[in-house]
Design brief:
It is built from seven helices and no strands. It is mainly alpha-helical and 120 residues long.
Amino acid sequence: MSTLSQNLVQRARILLLLNAGQSPKEVMESLDVSSPTVFKWRNRYTEQGLTGLRDASRPGQPRKLVAEKAQGIHDSFILKQKMTSEDRKALMAAVPNAFVQRDRAFHEISANLVDRSNAR
């Protein structure tokens, strides 16, 4: 199940209250938002429909935090390589197979994130 962002929920509430007949001033007061906020989302919805409620893309360079975190996760995978074969066997015997599979998938995803961010 996906979750909606709080911003998207607030935008939907603005539109629902306007649609229910409340004035922009009443919507501002009941949701504790500014006048420009009410009019911005009403106008965006009028012009673009539901897709207008999504956040617009921002100019500039993409955020690097995700790439940095993914790189850190990927780099931590190296720690596994410092184990002796005996240590690795003991660990594999103690850890459930489902966890090992999830861990491998997690590291593959982090490696893919790093590759994609470096390709930009």
